[in-house]
Write a structure and sequence with these properties.
The complex is a heterodimer. By secondary structure, chain A is mostly helical. Chain A has a single domain, classed as Orthogonal Bundle (ABC transporter involved in vitamin B12 uptake, BtuC), CATH 1.10.3470. Chain A has helices at 21-45, 56-67, 85-124, 136-149, 154-182, 187-210, 213-224, 232-250, 253-259, 263-268, 273-295, 301-313, 317-342, 350-368. The longest helix of chain A is centred in the first third of the chain and has 40 residues, at 85-124. Chain B is an alpha/beta fold. Chain B contains 15 helices and 18 strands. In chain B, the strands form 4 sheets. In chain B, strands 6-7-8-3-9-10 form a 6-stranded mixed sheet, with helices on both faces. The chains are: A mainly alpha, B alpha/beta. The interface between A and B is large, with 43 and 56 residues.
């Protein structure tokens, strides 16, 4: 019927918003840069905090001496109020071999967990998805508990623990992936598969610990998570994995954006949802496994970070993925620092703190305003 | 190998699609030429969506093959498919409040290489589409803030951004009000025409299909039931057969396209006990007088015959639509001996005869003349209406015949409800006694 005239568009009451796309893009870039700068600032402040109180100037001198390879401050402890040389050596050990690797581990593990959470929430189109819901951490814990149960000696444990934890976590990821590729079910099926596997692993762990009471204490500490295993070499491993895995994961923003419209729409627009599912699950398994291997179970980072990022940069996964890495790092680092500020003399397992601080913060985000940009749907 | 431009946009060769044990499409073949607007029609569950999902590559036919522009669909990667065919689903439910322009740009994904963002060309295409869809001033707004009509236009924009030569729409208007239905489909047709895009749209609304499509393909129970231009496809008989709906067909005078006014459901089973086994009821009419009675009797489950009707008469069309056996004569001609003989055969098989208040003229007087011979054998019901004198155009012959029928025991009934009551009672008395059988002659 050629006489039909298109019905006029619904009149828009509000004037067109000034924020065109290029400026929101600029705004997003600035937001992420600001977050990165805050993380960097926190990173620089962190070495001054610790269970042992070390003078500000000494921390600075020791750090700069090490970083510059001795070119600056060749005798870091010879200030006006310099400590004795034995004390100085202890300080050097504490700062260079403990604090800095710990801080770096917090940044790296936080980034790995944060980005994994962002990618999984996108893949499953579910705001609750995170590496722990899928059972990746349970797998890691089971792997770690094997080390405790079989009573590997203290010296070998440092090597065996991360290896077994990594294998446990990655094994769980591969198991879920295997089940996902045999039958191309819905994302809900896949998510529930992960939840079921997590529960089976949890039950298996409980059974193992029931018969090995001594191991259960070690495992329960491991379950609380900690940065104590951080050394320069562990940091190197985590950094390498994060650099490669994180980069490969971060480029999946456009695909995850389309998957938000449903797998069918994504497929009609050129995304192969099956392929993306395999890639994202594989990469998040590797990233989570390496974090879990060295830090134990640190909850809430993967869950909270993407929600925070969506609040500030919107729901575009090209920004959510790198943003979640930055916010995850920021979150874990500030958890470490704040716990040291509150309890300066004790090493609180960081998993306790992320849950205590993260959960209320998460609730605050949820109830502050029901804004649908934070996956309010469903 | 045929030249690509000569190849059909879509070619389905005998495709069969199964969901487990259920066959959703059964050996369907279809050729769509480039630039055509094809509407897929058919009741729920007839296979429209399955056909569309098969062309998109979401479902793989267990038999047969699908080609897009001469290339086998199974040989195309997901990305290549997206450059050939775009899809507008029934309803897309975005979760996130993505700014509209970025949402449109999602459609450009199949043209991006790895790590490559949007190009200025992509942005130009998105801007063009926003302008063509009258969404320009909403470009920066989140898609969740759009109204239903605007959102479906946005979905169309996202699909069109794929610059694919084939556009599939799966009941795109089913959540829209009538104004937005017209709006969306006229935009689809306009943009498809502008860019030479081939369109296949599953449409529930047959009148919309007739209005916009060059061609309608009717699916029924997974098979291709009819295929052709709207003027040929849209008939009362089609609606009765495929949808089980009794409708009236009219022609839109300005466009010459047909449209249908659905009236009522064609009951599949009888509502009253025994009506289907009772035997045929013959209805005498013409000029539309019989139509309501034919429909009511069919609805009630009775076997019905009709006559003698003239071709193009609305009663004749109703009888055809309902699949009622009827004797039909050419228009305005006196009734020929052969037709009259066939009519007598129908009359002799009838278990009851209904005479509707039709206008009697010389050409259809035979309708009344042959009734007298049956009045001794079967009940005759005369439906009261305008008195016979006012519709007698035979110088009193018709009036005399009616009076004779009355004298011979024909009963007057006041309308459809009364007639049905009488016939139900008749059927209830006859059927339990085992009267209904192959012998349908006089009792």
């Amino acid at each position: 019927m050629p006489n039909v005239r298109p019905v006029a568009a619904t009149p828009t009451a509000q004037p067109p918003r000034s924020g065109t796309v290029p400026t929101t893009r600029r705004r997003r870039t600035i937001t992420l840069l600001v977050l990165a700068l805050v993380a960097l600032g926190l990173f620089l402040v962190s070495p001054f905090l610790g269970t042992v109180s070390i003078p500000f100037e000494t921390v600075l001198r020791i750090t700069l001496e090490k970083i510059s390879g001795g070119a600056l401050f060749p005798q870091p402890c010879t200030g006006s109020s310099g400590p004795s040389s034995t004390l100085c050596q202890a300080y050097q050990l504490i700062i260079w071999d403990e604090r800095l690797p710990e801080i770096l581990l917090a940044v790296l593990a936080g980034a790995a967990l944060g980005m994994s959470g962002g990618a999984l929430q996108g893949l499953f189109r579910n705001p609750l998805a995170d590496p722990f819901l899928l059972g990746l951490s349970s797998g890691g814990t089971l792997g770690a508990s094997a080390v405790f149960v079989f009573g590997v000696g203290q010296s070998e444990a440092y090597l065996a623990l991360p290896i077994f934890a990594f294998l446990g976590a990655i094994g769980t990821g591969l198991l879920i992936l295997g089940m996902a590729s045999t039958r191309y079910g819905s994302v809900e099926t896949l998510l529930l598969t992960g939840v079921a596997i997590a529960n089976i692993l949890g039950a298996a762990l409980a059974l193992v610990l029931l018969y090995n009471p001594t191991a259960s204490i070690q495992v329960s500490f491991w379950l609380l998570g900690g940065l104590g295993q951080g050394t320069w070499s562990t940091d190197g491993i985590v950094f390498g994995v994060l650099l490669i895995g994180g980069t490969l994961l971060a480029v999946h923003g456009p695909e995850l954006n389309l998957i938000q419209l449903g797998n069918d729409v994504a497929q009609s627009a050129g995304v192969d949802p099956r392929q993306i599912r395999i890639r994202v699950l594989l990469l998040t398994s590797v990233l989570t496994a390496v974090a879990v291997a060295f830090t134990g179970v640190i909850g809430f980072v993967g869950l909270v970070a993407p929600h925070v990022v969506r609040r500030v940069v919107g729901s575009d996964y090209r920004w959510v993925l790198p943003g979640s890495a930055i916010v995850g790092a920021l979150f874990l680092l500030s958890a470490r620092d704040v716990s040291l500020l509150i309890f300066p003399s004790s090493v609180l397992p960081i998993g306790i703190f992320t849950a205590f601080a993260g959960a209320p913060f998460f609730l605050y985000l949820l109830y502050r305003q029901r804004n649908r940009t934070t996956m309010g749907g469903s | 190998m045929t030249h690509p431009s000569a190849a059909p946009a879509v070619r389905l060769r005998n495709i069969t699609v199964r969901y487990g044990a259920r066959t959703a499409l059964h050996e369907v073949s279809l050729n769509v030429i480039p630039g055509e607007f094809v509407a897929l029609a058919g009741p729920n569950g007839s296979g429209k969506t399955t056909l569309i999902r098969s062309v998109l590559g979401f479902l793989e036919p267990s038999e047969g093959s699908i080609e897009l522009f001469g290339r086998p669909l199974s040989g195309l990667s997901v990305r290549d498919r997206a450059r050939q065919v775009a899809w507008v689903p029934q309803e897309e439910a975005p979760r996130d409040n993505v700014p509209l322009e970025e949402y449109i740009l999602y459609g450009r994904y199949p043209f991006h290489r790895a790590l490559e963002g949007e190009t200025t060309e992509d942005r130009r295409i998105a801007r063009d589409l926003l302008r063509a869809l009258d969404l320009e001033d909403r470009a920066a707004d989140g898609i969740l803030s759009l109204s239903g009509g605007e959102r479906q236009r946005a979905v169309l924009g996202r699909a069109l951004a794929q610059s694919a030569p084939l556009l599939l729409l799966d009941e795109p208007t089913s959540h829209l009000d009538i104004g937005h239905q017209l709006d969306l489909l006229s935009r689809v047709r306009e943009l498809a025409h502008r860019d030479g895009v081939t369109v296949i749209a599953a449409l529930h609304d047959l009148n919309l299909a007739a209005q916009f499509a060059d061609r309608i393909v009717v699916l029924s129970r997974g098979r291709c039931h009819a295929d052709g231009p709207p003027s040929k496809i849209l008939t009362e008989a089609l609606l009765a057969h495929v949808w089980g709906v009794i409708a009236e067909r009219r022609i839109e005078p300005r466009t010459g396209r047909p449209y249908l006014i659905p009236r009522r459901l064609l009951a599949e089973s009888s509502t009253a006990v025994g009506t289907d086994a009772f035997g045929p009821i013959h209805v005498v009419g013409g000029g539309g007088a019989a139509s309501p009675y034919l429909r009511a009797l069919v609805d009630e489950g009775f076997e019905v015959s009709a006559g003698i009707l003239h071709l193009l008469d609305s009663d004749a069309e109703t009888a055809e639509a309902l699949g009622i056996p009827a004797t039909v004569e050419v228009p305005f001609a006196p009734i020929s001996p052969a037709v009259r003989e066939r009519h007598r055969a129908l009359l002799s098989q009838a278990r009851a005869i209904v005479v509707t208040p039709f206008a009697v003229g010389p050409s259809n007087l035979a309708n009344l003349e042959d009734l007298g011979a049956r009045s001794a054998h079967v009940p005759i019901f005369l439906v009261t209406g305008p008195s016979i004198e006012t519709r007698d155009f035979t110088q009193g012959v018709a009036t005399r015949l009616v009076r004779e029928l009355e004298a011979g025991g024909a009963r007057s009934v006041g309308g459809i409800e009364e007639l049905l009551r009488e016939l139900r009672a008749l059927a209830a008395r006859a059927v339990p006694a085992g009267a209904a059988g192959p012998d349908r002659g006089a009792p």
